[in-house]
Amino acid sequence: IIPVTLVKLETFEIESLGFEVKNTSEAELKEFSVKNGVIVTRPISQEMAKYNLSGIVITHLNDEVIKNIDDVKRIMNQRVAGEPIKMTFINTKGETNNFIFR
User: Fold this and answer.
1) Largest alpha-carbon pair distance within the chain?
2) What is the pLDDT of residue 69?
3) Are 37 and 24 in contact (CB under 8 A)?
């Protein structure tokens, strides 16, 4: 018998922000020296493609801690259309930055 660990590999497209995210692995959290967050996997809009955000770790949305995709879905579903959203993230150089989407 071979032990198997099932992992939920899930992505979520944040259409209003223009990119896709996935849950982080323990190795990715360690690599970025963070305890929580989701990783941007790819842009889904031409506008976001020019910012090269693939690989960043989003740690907060509207100052709420992001642990996984479920947190992202909850926050985005509570948001009123057109309402600004603040995104705190760690870039691939390990620097913390903020974007405000309007």
Assistant:
1) 53
2) 96
3) yes
pLDDT at 91: 94
Please state the length of the chain: 102
Residue 102's pLDDT is: 87
Contact call for residues 54 and 89 (beta carbons, < 8 A): no
Tell me if the pTM is above 0.90.
no
Domain boundaries 13-101, corresponding CATH code = 2.30.42.10
Tokens of 80: 């009123």
* CA distance linking residue 75 with residue 69, whole number of Å: 10
Q: Which residues pair with 99 in a beta bridge?
A: 87
What are the residue ranges spanned by the domains of the chain?
13-101
- Tens-digit pLDDT profile for residues 11-46: 999 998 999 999 999 999 999 999 999 999 999 999
**100 three-class SS:** strand
Backbone angles phi, psi at 97, to 5 degrees: -135, 165
Q: Tell me the HSE value of 68 on the side-chain side, using a 13 A CA sphere.
A: 6
